[in-house]
Structure formats: structure tokens, C-alpha cells
Amino acid sequence: MKNIKNGKPTDERKDDDHGKVADDDANDAHANDEGNRGNEDGEQEIGKMDEEEPSTNDRRRMNILLLYPDDWRHNSLGSENPILQTPFLDSLAQEGIRFRQNAVTTSICWQSRATLFSGQWASQHRSFKLKCPHFTKGENWNHTWAGMLQNDGYYTGHVGKWQYHNSDLKKRFNYSHGFEGRHWYTLNRKPISGEDLARHSAVKFLEDRPKDKPFSLSIAFYPPKPVGSSRDPGMQWMPKNESRAIYENVTIPEPYNHTDAYNRLPAYLHTGRTGAERRWYERYRTPEHYQAAMKNIYALITQVDQACKEIVDELKKQGVYNNTMIIFTTDNGMFHGAHGLAGKWYPYQESIRVPLIVYDPRMPKEKRGFVDDSFTLNVDLAETILGAAGLNAHKGMQGRDISDLYLPKVEDGKPVLVRKPWRDEFFYEFTIWDENFIPSSNALVRKKWKFIHWYTKNGFQLFDLENDPLELNDVMDDPANVEIVREMKERLFEVRDELKSDDIGCQHGNYDWIQPLPEPSTDATAISSVGTAKA
User: Fold this and answer.
1) What is the mean pLDDT of the segment spanning 434-445?
2) Rounded to an integer, what distance in angstroms lies between the CA atom of residue 129 and that of residue 506?
3) For residues 7 and 496, what is the distance between their CA atoms, to the nearest angstrom?
4) Which of 133, 253, 306, 369 is the most buried (most CB within 10 A)?
5) Residue 269 and residue 247: Cα distance in Å, rounded?
6) Taking the model in full, what pTM does it have?
7) For residue 508, is pLDDT > 60?
């Protein structure tokens, strides 16, 4: 069978975190704490190689820092939304490059994370079900970017949300501290916010890492993901008082008329039974609910922005900033009331588009601060990271090194983008175990057109994204679009069939995730117990 590469065939070789999650004691980092603390400080000229970093076979092996919050859609940045305060991320984009059309290939937490590590569409990594991470099993882990870096001598770490079995972290990384499902924890018998705990653990990793090895560190922040199922206004988000106060006296604009947008959806999406409808009712059903929810979400985003700044400040303090690739992106978008929906999952823009900022010390000066509208995808990040480490991608990876878009690469005397133009379309896929709760879908996405197949409902939609960016007007039945429907349907089925793999039957386990999360405890032992996260 052919592989799908860059969203096209080639002959080259559900919101939500359903299930119980175990929160590890915030005082126990599960870490291998060997290594000396760093004592370097100062900054370097951008692009200059750090003297302390090793090189193998004269190839540059950059450090990797991945900043990876949860449930954060593409325009939740100050550069896109003047109400939202994200000063650090905006400044990072000015030093690097921001990809405005970046998207995920499956919009749900664990499948997107599996794609991040494996560099594969879900149909290839097959980690369809919660707590069933096929991408980590057997030799599969050695084919992820994290496994390949560790095998190449990198000191690797992961902090925060893992989604699968947190005990696996000890086997997968040199340093790990897994925790998720809450906005507040305890550290040394004092309350600490989720993003501050992630920052604390990340700095510990950076301080204690062996200084004779390059490193990679992924930091999976849980905020701004909702917690629990409260129906009280804004109570699924618990920011700090001081960050919440920033947004106290602002009015956050609502999406296009909730009721009208909802009524335009296909009948099988407004049954009253879907997760997207139920969670809209919990979170956004009145103006009071909407304002309280969005102000708390914005406050948590601002908190994560500050935590990211403090982590990067530690890189600068240690003198390794200019030999470190920094990637900021997220696992999926969120509707925030758009289309009269909450959550994600569906192939609409608010769900599938997420931020992507890349700071790369190799980047030419003229590219810094650039906003690029190329179709970059989460499936590309594995090859991008490996490229920064001077390693070739594994043959099973299906993305493309994003640095092709900003580095002056030449192959056989021609610019790489001339020899191999960047993708102009991509395939989206989504499947889960309960079709009534979250209907499955595929989509073929282009700059102008999006063609959606709700394949268990025998339904199709077509949107003209240039003239209808909010996706309110399905033009599938417009006689003027007969040819584009025919061509895109044929193309979607072609790509789908190239990706198709059988569900290998890994059981999801229990469904206790639909129950409310217990109230957070300030007792460290309670925080290490099993809790149920919902979003």
C-alpha cells in the first residue's frame, strides 16, 4: 500500500479526554535527577552555536523545547485578538515565525498527541482509543521523534499531560513528571497552579540535565482546558485572581448568533445528544455563562504565556537559547460557542486550526517576525524536530520538515520549494467509539474549499472558505458547484483509502469520564489519586 505523504498519496515507501486520569504527586517528579546543575548565564547573538553543546559528525544538534498547552484555538493570541494578553508568545513570534493556517489532522487530545510524537495520521498510528497508545508499543516508540532523539544521545524529558498511562513516562523519557486533570495542585504543602507546576518541573529539568548532552523537553500544560462539568457560569475554569482581574471590566464579543448558526448545522449535529451540544449548554448558554467562561479561559491563557516566558528565560540564563528550537503549538482548537457548539472534534475551522510559532536559531533575519499562511500540520512537527537535530525522519513518518518554508535549502541546484512545492490541501480524519456522542468525519481542506464527509451519517458539506470563513452556508447543493463537488469527493475518497487501516480492537475501558470531577484538594496525597477529567 502507498503511504500518504504531505496529505497526498506517494509511492515513496474525541473534547475530550475521556477516561480517568491519574495525577502524580506534585512532589515526586518521576525523574532521573542525575546531572550537574548549570552555572552559565548571559545571552548570545542569534544563530551562534553554543560552545557547550556537543556535535556528532559535524552536524548541528539543536536542543528542542516544545510548549504544548491544551484546547487552545488558532486566534487565542494577542496578535490575533486585541483583548487577549499574551505578550511573551507575541514576542516569540517576532523572533521566529508564526504559521497562521496551521491545523491538526484529528481534533481530539490523545489522537493529536499521538500524531505529534509519531509524525503520522491517526489511521497510521492507530491510537484511536484513550489509554491505548499504539504509537508507544514495542518498536513503535523508537520510531517517534522522542525515541529517536534519546537513541541519538539526547537527554529527553516530558512534563505535564500525557493522556495515556502515566507510568509509561518513566520508560519513555530520561526525566518525567506527569500530571493532568486539574488547574490547581499542591507543592510542598502549598497550592500551585497547573502551569506554574509545569514551569517548576521544566526549570528543574533544565537545571539538572547533563551539560554534555543536547536535550529535548516537551511541556504539556493542562490549562486552559476545562475541568469538571459544572453548569455554573465559568466554573469549569479556575484561574488566579490576579490574572482574572485583567479581564474583569472587558466584554468579550460573542461568536456569530449562536441560535442561527446552530440551526444551520445538519440535522444529525443538532439532536440534543451530542457532546458538542451538551457542553455548549453547560458552558455558554447565557450571556453570563459566555462572559464568565471566556474571561476565565483568557486568564488561564495569560498565565500559560507567563509560564512559557519563565521557562525560556531559564534557557537564556543558561546560555542555550540560541541553540534551542522552540515550538509553541496546541493539540486542538475549541468552538467557544461558535456554531452553537462547545468542544472540538468536528472539521470546522475553530476546531482544527491551532497556533504554531517556531523559533529556530538558523532562521534568516528576513524571515523573523514573518506570518506564513502555508498549510502546516501537527503531523509535520516530528520531521521538523528531527531536522533540527540533524537526523533523517523515520520512513514511516508522513509529514514534512517545516524548516523548508523558512531556510534557504537547495537540492540539485534548485530551491527545495521549487523542486517540491508545499502542500495545497490536507486530509482531516476523526473517529471515536460513540457516533451519537461525536459523529465521525473526514474532510479535504483547501484554501478556498472545504469538503466534509460525515461518513456514518451519509452526509456531505461544502464550504467556500474565501467567501464564508465562518462556515455558515453549506453550498453542497448549489448547481454551480457540481464539478467541484465531484472532484473533491473523488479526491477525498482517494486519500481516505490510502490511509485506511483496520481498528485493531483495543478496548477503551470504562466510561467513568462522564461523571463530574471531584473537587480539587489541597492535600498532596489526594492530588496523587485518580480523578476524572472532562472537557
Assistant:
1) 92
2) 7
3) 10
4) 133
5) 33
6) 0.85
7) no
